[in-house]
Amino acid sequence: MPPAVLRPIGRTGQRVFPIGLGAMPLSLAGRPAESAAIAVIHAALDEGVTLIDTADSYCRDEKDYGHNERLIAKALKSHPLGKHAKVATKGGYTRPHGGWVVDARPDRLRKCCEASLRALGVETLWLYQLHHPDGRVPFAESVGALARLKQEGKVLHLGLSNVSAEQIAQAQRIVRIETVQNECNPLATDDFRNGVIASCARQGMTYIAYSPVGGQWGHRQQSRNRLLAAIAKAHGVSAYQVALAWLLQAAPHIVPIPGASKVSSIRDSAKAVELMLTKEEIQRIDALAP
To answer: What is the DSSP string of the chain?
Structure first.
């Protein structure tokens, strides 16, 4: 079994991390002012959110690496609950001219990890994740680089992002993987059918669902979905809460990490842990994705 700190269901039967905060929107182009961004992180802490997801590449471009990590470090340091938060970061993307290019070469991952340590102001990263497999680099080499970082004490736990069930199995033969972070929401349900979510459950791994309410580009489509809107209206909540509650009730090892750039957004998302959908509502949402 994974360490208790990562176990989605604790000994009391309560989730260690009901939901997390996806902090990416706080650092991309069009990001809010720093004071407003810090207010979002503080609001998340106030709502009981203790898992914050970031990456060195959550920034505007190659001149801005580590912005999100530095922002989180500043926010946690200035809030009394900050010491209780767990930060999960990632390495493996570059941002040339604001684009997204995968670079998971072992030497690059090492540099990214060391930069993240400095940006977050810690001696050991709590959770370090391979942001994306690199088609130009053998997957085992990238995972091996993570294993060495853990052996050296730079990283406590390891995770993968944007991976298949086969890649998870390959990585587990090299080093213990605690988390898998893939896209998952009512309109993007591939991981329920391709074995990824089931594989995580069998191996005692936490499945972190990113873009659980549609992400930067799909959240409007999800909020306008007629079924989600109807269920939301019946419960007197937002469609986003419905999407998050659906994920929370789907399996106990799933932890959604909704993004937020406004205080109102993270406060709304945090309320999803109180929403209980009916069996019929869940079945209707299950049938949404093709």
So the answer is: ---TTT-SB-TTSSBS-S--EE-GGGTSTTPPPHHHHHHHHHHHHHTT--EEE--TT-SSSTTSTTHHHHHHHHHHHTSTTGGG-EEEEEE-EE-GGG--EE---HHHHHHHHHHHHHHHT-SSEEEEEE-S--TTS-HHHHHHHHHHHHHTTSEEEEEEES--HHHHHHHHTTS---EEEEE-BTTB-HHHHSSHHHHHHHTT-EEEEESTT-HHHHHHHHHT-HHHHHHHHHHTS-HHHHHHHHHHHH-TTEEEE-B-SSHHHHHHHHGGGG----HHHHHHHHTT--
